[in-house]
Amino acid sequence: MIQRTGATVQTDSPIETVQLDKSWQQLLSEAVSEPEQLLQRLQLPGSMQASMQAASENFALRVPEPFLKLIEPGNPQDPLLLQVLPQARELDQLPGYVADPLAEQSSNPDAGIIHKYHGRLLLVISGGCAINCRYCFRRHFPYQDNQLSGTQWQAVLDYLNEHPEVEEVIFSGGDPLATPDSRLIRLIDDLEQLPQLKRVRIHTRLPVAIPQRLTDALRQRLSRSRLQAVMVLHLNHPNEIGDELKHWLQPWRQSNITLLNQSVLLEGINDRAEVLIELSERLFAEGILPYYVHLLDPVAGAAHFDMDEQKARQLVGAMAAKLPGYMVPKLTREQPGVSAKVQLSPDLPDKS
Ligand SMILES: *Cc1c(COP(=O)(O)O)cnc(C)c1O
Ligand code: SF4
């Protein structure tokens, strides 16, 4: 068990800690963005502010309330805090850590389209995120040039018509669920008209930051779509599964929507086998299959999160030695110019 004390520890009546009165948009607009405010809110020493300031000017601090509630007050090493806390060392320039580690800007045929893998087209449908993760490989991505506007959406439909081999459209970002339901529903309406398409997939961390984002309107639209719907969540640590997420996720589990998770392996956050095993078990208990664990993409500012490849293979090996196969995610690394994500084999311990 991961021991944790804090605002949302389990009670006999889990609903007590669930926020029912605010919309996701309201929670999004009220996200904490000032270093001082974060420190006060979490009862952390004001002396931490100096280190946060410059880093947050480079890539803004952003943490919504539901995620904040999962962080243990007074603990500067909390694994959820470390994912969102700006730190001076992000500004260190280290060889090999670059602005566009996946060379995505070269597989960007049109604004908002990334066509890198056969049969799947990734669309950057939103520039925003509900939470700013310090390790994010897109922290320097030129979103302003890459958001799909109305006219560009027509260009996406044209591109799909010219590429009948594409069977799956992936909504990505930023975070695609930062987009209002009304717009998402219009996009799905249009995509359904393309007979070649079989699946629509959403890559999102928003429900982890603001579980209230799991609205009925979106769920019902996806559930009755001709397209098979897949939602790939992004959780890195078992503490990210709180009562609110469980509550809002519940109806999605019964809605014919495949739920998967991807994690990034992060030094100091999920770098122990017990943590990753607990994450897989808690994901599966909520109806989510662990899909991928990724090695960090070497983005400038995130070197301190980077995990050694050998250690990553041992961690996944330790998971495989303890868990049923369907709870062991694939370990992958992205490599520019290769036809799929590169899979690394787990390093299995001897049987004891
Ligand atoms: C990861 C990724 C995909 C999806 O790959 P899967 O292995 O099918 O999950 C598609 N396009 C891009 C650009 C990606 O990075
Ligand atoms: S794209 Fe995902 S990982 Fe990056 S900041 Fe947004 S939510 Fe976090």
From TrEMBL:
<dbReference type="GO" id="GO:0046872">
    <property type="term" value="F:metal ion binding"/>
</dbReference>
<keyword id="KW-0949">S-adenosyl-L-methionine</keyword>
<dbReference type="Pfam" id="PF04055">
    <property type="entry name" value="Radical_SAM"/>
</dbReference>
<dbReference type="InterPro" id="IPR058240">
    <property type="entry name" value="rSAM_sf"/>
</dbReference>
<keyword id="KW-0663">Pyridoxal phosphate</keyword>
<keyword id="KW-0413">Isomerase</keyword>
<feature type="binding site">
    <location>
        <position position="136"/>
    </location>
    <ligand>
        <name>[4Fe-4S] cluster</name>
    </ligand>
</feature>
<feature type="domain" description="Radical SAM core">
    <location>
        <begin position="115"/>
        <end position="333"/>
    </location>
</feature>
<keyword id="KW-0411">Iron-sulfur</keyword>
<dbReference type="InterPro" id="IPR022462">
    <property type="entry name" value="EpmB"/>
</dbReference>
<dbReference type="GO" id="GO:0016853">
    <property type="term" value="F:isomerase activity"/>
</dbReference>
<dbReference type="InterPro" id="IPR007197">
    <property type="entry name" value="rSAM"/>
</dbReference>
<protein>
    <recommendedName>
        <fullName>L-lysine 2,3-aminomutase</fullName>
    </recommendedName>
</protein>
<keyword id="KW-0004">4Fe-4S</keyword>
<dbReference type="InterPro" id="IPR003739">
    <property type="entry name" value="Lys_aminomutase/Glu_NH3_mut"/>
</dbReference>
<keyword id="KW-0408">Iron</keyword>
<dbReference type="InterPro" id="IPR013785">
    <property type="entry name" value="Aldolase_TIM"/>
</dbReference>
<dbReference type="GO" id="GO:0051539">
    <property type="term" value="F:4 iron, 4 sulfur cluster binding"/>
</dbReference>
<feature type="binding site">
    <location>
        <position position="133"/>
    </location>
    <ligand>
        <name>[4Fe-4S] cluster</name>
    </ligand>
</feature>
<comment type="similarity">
    <text>Belongs to the radical SAM superfamily. KamA family.</text>
</comment>
<keyword id="KW-0479">Metal-binding</keyword>
<feature type="binding site">
    <location>
        <position position="129"/>
    </location>
    <ligand>
        <name>[4Fe-4S] cluster</name>
    </ligand>
</feature>
<feature type="modified residue" description="N6-(pyridoxal phosphate)lysine">
    <location>
        <position position="341"/>
    </location>
</feature>
